[in-house]
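Quick entry, no commentary yet.
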Amino acid sequence: MKMSDDDVHMEDYPTEIHDYLVAFEKSLGSVDEMLKTMMSVSRNELLQKLEPLEQAKLDLVSVYTLNSMFWVYLATQGINPKEHPVKQELERIRTYMNKVKEIADKKKASKLDKGAASRFVRNALWEPNAENEHTTKKGKKRKMD
C-alpha cells in the first residue's frame, strides 16, 4: 500500500496535504511492522519473560494503543471521539499508567545505606581536640580562633 504518483493522482486530493499523507502512510507502515513483531510471539511466551511490573506496563500500553486507534477510527468516521466513551476509557488507562509509573519510580529510588550514612555524618562532624585545633580533610592542622 505504497503511495506513488502512478497509484494516486495528485488531482484526487489537494496538493497541500500530499506531504502529510506520505508521512501518515509511513507512520502506518511503522505501526504495521511493530504489530507484526509483537504478534510473532505468543502473549503467554512474552509475559513469561517479563517481571510483573513490566507485564502491567505492556498491558497498559497495548490497551492504550488499541483505544487510541479506535479514537482515530471514530474521527475518520465523522464521530467526535471527545463525546464518546472511549475518552473516559483513555483517561482511566492513563490513571493506571501513572500508578504503575509511581510504583516503578519508588522501586528505582535509592535505598538508604545506613552504614554509609553514619560514616558520612561521623566524618562531617567537627571534633575539637585538647588544643582547640581542627584537622582538615588533607590532614593539616589549623588553629581555631
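second:
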Amino acid sequence: MKSMFVTVSTTSFDELITAARSPSALQALQSRGYQKLVLQAGRGSLPQPQPQPSSSPAVAVEAFRFKDSLAEELQSADLVISHTGAGSCLETLENGKPLIVVINDKLMNHQLELAKQLHRDGCVLYCNCRYGAAGATMQSMNLSAFKPFPPGQPEKFASFLNKVLGLQ
C-alpha cells in the first residue's frame, strides 16, 4: 500500500497537518496512487476523522501525537512531508526517502535557509502552507528528480575536533 508520512516532530504545526488533509492534497495523493496518509501531530491538535466522498476511493488516514521512534513510519513511507526541522530532514534523507519540507511562516528562523539549501542540492522540494501550496507541490512533484543525500562523515568531524582540542 503506497503511503505518505507527515511529521511535525515535537513541535506544533497545525497548518501542516491541515494542509496535508486538504481536499487538494488528498486528491493529489489519490491521483498518484497513494492509499494511506499517516499524520504525526506532535504538540498540535490531533485531527478529527473526516468523512470521505463515496464517489471516489478514499485515502486511509491515521493520526497520532508521539511515538518513542518514528523509524517504522519513515521506513514504510513512500513519501515524507515534514516541517523544516534539521533533525527531521536529516533523518528522512538518511533513510533515502523523498522529502517535501514545509516552512512554518510563523517562525522566522533557519527553516527557509535549510529548505533552500537542501533544494539547491537536489534533495528536497519545499513549500509553505499558504494557498494550497502543499497540494500543488504534491501534484507537480517529480520523485525521480531527487538526488540521494550524501552519507555523513563523522570521522572528519572527529579529526577536526581532535586537532582543535590539541588531542592529535
